[in-house]
Write a structure and sequence with these properties.
This protein is α+β, with helices and mostly antiparallel strands. The protein has a single domain (5-114), classed as GAF domain (Beta-Lactamase). It has four helices and three strands. Strands 1-2-3 form a three-stranded antiparallel sheet. A hairpin with a 6-residue loop joins β1 (55-58) and β2. The N and C termini lie far apart (35 Å). The mean pLDDT is 82.
C-alpha cells in the first residue's frame, strides 16, 4: 500500500519545499481532492514541521498508529530522506516525544555523517 506523502514521513520533505515547489508538485495531480494537501490553505503545518524539525503522525495514515519522524539531511543541509519510528497509539506517550525526537535526530545525524558531500 502506498500512502500520499503528506500523510507520512514524506511530509517532512514537503515541508522543505517553497510554496511554488509545492504547487508544482501537486498542482496538476490527478489524485482525489481528499488525498491532496489543501494548497489553498496557509502552509501552517509544513512551516511548523520545518521550524520544529520533526513531525508527528497520529492516525493520519493508519488508524491506531503513531509515527514520529525527522528529516535526514545531506552534508549540504538539504533534506534527502525522512527517518521515522512508528508504534501502536496505545503505546505512545506525548511525554516521551522529546526523547523519541532526540534519538531519531542522533540517528539522522549519523546517517548524514556517512553521506558523501554534494559534488
Amino acid at each position: 500500500m502506498v500512502f500520499p506523502a503528506h500523510r507520512t514521513t514524506g511530509g517532512l520533505l514537503l515541508a522543505e519545499l517553497t510554496p511554488a515547489e509545492l504547487e508544482e508538485t501537486y498542482g496538476n495531480a490527478t489524485a482525489e481532492e481528499a488525498e491532496r494537501p489543501r494548497l489553498a490553505e496557509p502552509r501552517t503545518e509544513p512551516a511548523r514541521i520545518h521550524k520544529q524539525g520533526f513531525a508527528v503522525n497520529q492516525g493520519r495514515s493508519e488508524r491506531g498508529l503513531v509515527a514520529v519522524g525527522v528529516p535526514v539531511r545531506d552534508p549540504g543541509g538539504t533534506a534527502v530522506a525522512g527517518l521515522s519510528l512508528s508504534m501502536p497509539s496505545v503505546r505512545y506517550e506525548r511525554a516521551r516525544l522529546p526523547a523519541l525526537v532526540a534519538t531519531l535526530s542522533r540517528s539522522a545525524a549519523a546517517i548524514k555523517a556517512g553521506l558523501a558531500p554534494a559534488q
